[in-house]
Amino acid sequence: xxxxxxxxxxxxxxxxxxxxxxxxxxxxxxxxxxxxxxxxxxxxxxxxxxxxxxxxxxxxxxxxxxxxxxxxxxxxxxxxxxxxxxxxxxxxxxxxxxxxxxxxxxxxxxxxxxxxxxxxxxxxxxxxxxxxxxxxxxxxxxx
Length: 143
Ligand SMILES: [Zn+2]
Hints:
It is a single chain. The chain is an alpha+beta fold. The protein has one domain. 24% of the residues lie in helices and 14% in strands. The chain contains four helices and six strands. The chain has a two-stranded antiparallel sheet. The longest helix has 10 residues, at 126-135. The protein is globular and about 40 Å long. It binds zinc ion.
């Protein structure tokens, strides 16, 4: 029987295999920039991001995950960019700013397509992308 914490919400357990499944789906590279640094056989700075946050009841399933480098994971969770549900296009917030070179490095991905998983069954699910765009992304989007 599942334990129930004091809040009354059933406690959800993280799937320990989530990270590995997501990284495999994306062939061990960042879905935005292609970062695939390894030290021997160990990936470095590559993470499995939840599209709909685990804390917001987002499930530990591959269609709710994207392999992202540490920097793109961080800014994705802050709403600096989002991914459009129909085209898988990456769009950045107009609120993104910084020195010219740093910002330019981010914006080279503006309008580009997400580097998609190796099989369509792993593609990000629209409902999760919609949630991220609605709840996390800092509108308005750059065009
Ligand atoms: Zn990246």
